[in-house]
Amino acid sequence: MNALFTQRGAVLPYTNPSASDAVDPGSLVRLAGLTGVLQGADKLAASAVGEAAVKGVFRIRKKEEIIVPGLPIWWDADGSPKVGTASSGAATAIASGAMAAADFVIGSAVAAAAAADEYVEVELNAYSPAFPAWANKIHTTKTDHHTVTQADGGTVLRIATDAKTFTLPAVASGGADITFVNDGADGAVALKIEPNSDDKIMGGGFTAEDDKYIINTKTTAKRGDFVTLTPYGADGWFVTAIKGVWAREA
After folding, report:
1. Count of CB atoms within 10 A of residue 136's CB?
2. Is 86 left (phi over 0), alpha (psi -120 to 50) or beta?
3. What is the pTM of this model?
4. CB count, 10 Å around CB of 181?
5. Distance between CA atoms of residues 105 and 100, nearest Å
6. pLDDT digits (tens, 9 = 90+) for 128-183
7. Are the beta carbons of 82 and 61 closer than 8 angstroms?
8. Mean pLDDT, to the nearest integer, of 47-57?
9. Cα–Cα–Cα angle for 9, 10, 14, rounded to 5 degrees
10. Are 138 and 157 spatial neighbours (Cβ–Cβ below 8 Å)?
């Protein structure tokens, strides 16, 4: 026998990592790269083992913002909920701020939520193909032009400000894949990605040529459009994933 059933996987064991603090039931926790909701009626004592649900739909307190179905949702550990204590933590659309070390993606919205709503309904660890979440990567929101560095490798860079440019480092310096996401409203944000003068952006239907930018054009841009670029030898960057209408500089 190569495998033996142990449990359905909707609930997993969770060990409180703190040596001194108990965890309240209903708390959002991280385990095995997943988001869980701590189960039970009582607090989980320090270093004790309890159970956390990692599947299902949960009503989670949120910030004062509009959320549309399918949108990735993350837990802002010091965010302020619409109802509750300021800076005590709240769910938010992933586009709405930089992801700090204590924050994490939790799932996707299954129903619309108005800015005035106290809660958003979230399906844990589930994501819509229309809004990729890159759940275990670091997300950073930019508001102005940004010169990409090696430290940005492997991350997701997001922007909702119009007419800004991400400038890529020379591919000869090495690095890892980088994903660029347009977080602006539909038809509101043009996002340009500029390579080094000696590098090309290849694949994705683009004709490869040195020093030619690509742009997610404003008139056709949709919230959630993205491109993932991977260093490709000495020639430049290769498009490994793309969504939306992008054009190459003439």
Report:
1. 10
2. beta
3. 0.78
4. 27
5. 11
6. 887 888 988 888 889 999 999 989 999 999 999 999 999 999 997 677 999 999 98
7. yes
8. 95
9. 80
10. no
